[in-house]
Design a protein that fits this description.
single chain, about 290 residues, alpha/beta, Rossmann fold, 2 domains, about 20% strand
């Protein structure tokens, strides 16, 4: 996820005046510091959720953002500079819709950071819709941060967790994040627990062994690139969302991949991603499929 591909060395974080957005700014500032990148804080005065709220609530939300925008940006910038003194911080107030703006920026920035939900009905719907839409459509990794996300800037020794699917989409980014933080990586491959209902015990053991070998084949090239990263791996039986959420309780970052699969498989993957984004105890980094090398 380095920016050697021509993208700007600037993390873009979206804010809306909520505590969740400020938590996202804290995380983004720390990430920018460890990578020695710049940080751009973005607020859209045109932001408004598309469904679920009355016209009056939507207009009220837009007016609040318009009249309070500069103050929101100043507070966020002060927070960023407090967390990561030395990081170049800039702010931007735009009249363009926030989702469209972030998706467009994702083509030329190495990372987008958003909060999971805003404050109040309007801003909860706003940030919730933003995080869902941007993680689906962005061309760069997107970090989703909860207000309750547990992380300690600069002193967090907990591991990075990566959910490894058949494509291995997020493995490279997960190794890079662990290396930057100087912590271990815990790789988890999830298998449907219903498998056990269709095979004998010895066949289940063979299936588990095959999955473990497949997981190791995905991890080995990256571990050779990042030999300093302590690595643990496991194959778990159970629903992917349940397994990843449990492992994320003791992690500082959860990394998952994104796919454009359709049909029942695509629906299941989107459901897993949505559950993880809304319920994880730590920030979640969603990596698009094209980010991994060939």
């Amino acid at each position: 996820m380095s920016s050697d591909d021509g993208t700007e060395r600037t993390i873009v974080v979206a804010v809306d005046g909520s505590g969740t957005a400020l938590q996202a700014v804290r995380w983004a500032a720390a990430e920018a510091a460890v990578r020695r990148w710049r940080l751009r804080i973005l607020l859209s005065s045109a932001s408004a959720p598309r469904t679920g709220l009355s016209a009056m609530e939507i207009v009220g939300g837009r007016e609040w953002l318009y009249w309070n925008g500069e103050g929101v940006l100043s507070e966020a910038a002060a927070m960023a500079r407090h967390v990561a003194d030395g990081v170049e911080v800039t702010t931007e107030l735009t009249a363009e819709p926030v989702i469209d703006t972030l998706v467009e920026r994702s083509a030329r920035t190495p990372m987008i950071v958003v909060g999971s939900h805003g404050r109040g009905a309007v801003r909860r719907a706003l940030l919730g819709s933003v995080s869902s839409a941007v993680t689906r459509h962005a061309r760069c990794p997107v970090a989703v941060v909860h207000r309750e996300s547990l992380f300690t800037v600069g002193t967090d020794g907990r591991p990075v967790i990566v959910g490894v699917d058949e494509e291995g989409t997020a493995v490279g980014c997960a190794f890079e994040e662990a290396a930057l933080r100087g912590v271990g990586l815990h790789a988890v491959r999830c298998c449907d627990d219903e498998v056990g209902g269709f095979v004998l015990d010895r066949e289940l053991q063979q299936f588990s062994a095959d999955e473990t070998r497949a997981l190791n084949r995905q991890l080995d090239p990256w571990h050779r690139k990042y030999p300093e990263v302590p690595l643990e791996s496991e194959v778990m039986f159970g629903g992917p969302a349940q397994v990843l959420l449990e492992r994320a309780r003791d992690a500082q970052l959860l990394v998952v991949g994104r796919h454009r699969w359709t049909g029942l498989v695509g629906t299941a993957m989107r459901s897993t991603r949505a559950a993880v984004l809304h319920r994880a105890h730590c920030p979640t980094l969603v990596v698009p499929e094209h980010m991994e090398p060939e």
